[in-house]
Structures are given as structure tokens and as C-alpha cells.
């Protein structure tokens, strides 16, 4: 069986689950006052799906490389937590000190977060959305390539 099919099958399963969960969260937030254009919500779900593909592929490739369940969580957390904090998802980076804002610009996730925020307010054609889409697609291409190569190398 193709190693790409193995990776993409597992990763796409994760993407479907992530997208359904995101849609449910958006639907549940509407009665509590969330007001967003339908196009913005759909674009945000698409960005989450593409980013989910990147994260899932990276996780499978990294897990296969490490070959130890005990090593995977600490390595993943030491990478994910700083990226999460610097992405601006918890607090907009515009509120951060200038040096931290500058450091955050090297994190591709910050562009996806900015694109999602712009989409939720209805700005579907702004530069933030374009940069976020480019960052998400670039991350996914790199992650899927890494995952497929790892699957091929480890199963050869």
C-alpha cells in the first residue's frame, strides 16, 4: 500500500473530526451572540482544516521518527506551546510588547490566526486572509511531504 495513502488517510480522518468540531463550536456560539458572515465562518473552517492537515501529518511523522510513546508528548509540547503562545490565539499579539510582536511574526501560525479573525469580522479579501491562506497551505505542503518521506523511510 502507498505510504502517502496511509498518511493521508489517517490525517484526513483527523481533519474531518476537527472540522466537524469547529462547525459545532461555531453553531453553538451563535445563540450566545456570535455574529459572523457565513462566508467568514466557512473560510475559517477551511483554514482550520488545512492547518489540521499540517499538524496531523507532522504529528504522525514525528511519532514515527521518535519510536517512543514516552518521548512524543514532551517533544510535541515543547514545540506546540511556544507556537501557540506566539500565535496570538489566546491574546492578540498587537497587545504584546514590540519585541514579542516582532518575534511572533516569524511564527506562521500567527498569520492563520490573523486570517481567521479577519474572516470572522467579514473581511474575506484583505491581505491578512491571503497571508493566512498562504501560510496554512505552505505548512500543509511541508508537513505532508515530511510525513510521507518519514513513512517511506521508516517502512523501507
Tell me what the structure shows.
The protein is an all-alpha fold. The chain has one domain. The two termini are 12 Å apart. The radius of gyration is 17 Å and the shape is globular. It has helices at 3-29, 38-66, 69-87, 98-104, 108-120, 127-154. The protein has 6 helices and no strands.
Précis, in short:
It contains six helices and no strands.
Which properties best describe this structure?
156 residues, mainly alpha, globular, single chain
Count, helices: 6
Query: How is the quaternary structure best described?
Result: single chain
Beginning-to-end CA distance, first to last residue: 12 Å
Biggest sheet layout:
none
Average pLDDT for all residues? 91
Order of helices and strands: HHHHHH
Q: What structural class results from the helix and strand content? A: mainly alpha
Write the layout of secondary structure elements.
Layout: H1 3-29, H2 38-66, H3 69-87, H4 98-104, H5 108-120, H6 127-154
Amino acid at each position: 500500500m502507498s505510504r502517502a495513502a496511509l498518511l493521508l488517510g489517517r490525517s484526513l480522518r483527523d481533519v474531518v473530526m476537527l472540522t466537524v468540531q469547529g462547525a459545532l463550536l461555531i453553531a453553538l456560539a451563535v445563540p450566545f451572540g456570535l455574529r459572523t458572515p457565513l462566508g467568514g465562518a466557512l473560510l475559517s473552517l477551511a483554514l482550520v482544516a488545512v492547518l489540521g492537515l499540517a499538524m496531523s501529518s507532522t504529528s504522525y511523522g514525528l511519532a514515527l521518527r521518535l519510536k517512543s510513546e514516552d518521548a512524543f508528548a514532551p517533544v510535541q509540547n515543547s514545540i506546540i506551546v511556544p507556537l501557540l503562545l506566539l500565535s496570538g490565539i489566546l491574546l492578540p499579539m498587537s497587545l504584546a510588547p514590540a519585541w514579542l510582536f516582532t518575534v511572533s511574526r516569524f511564527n506562521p501560525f500567527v498569520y492563520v490566526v490573523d486570517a481567521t479573525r479577519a474572516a470572522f469580522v467579514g473581511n474575506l479579501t484583505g491581505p491578512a486572509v491571503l497571508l493566512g491562506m498562504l501560510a496554512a497551505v505552505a505548512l500543509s505542503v511541508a508537513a505532508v511531504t515530511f510525513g510521507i518521506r518519514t513513512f517511506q523511510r521508516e517502512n523501507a
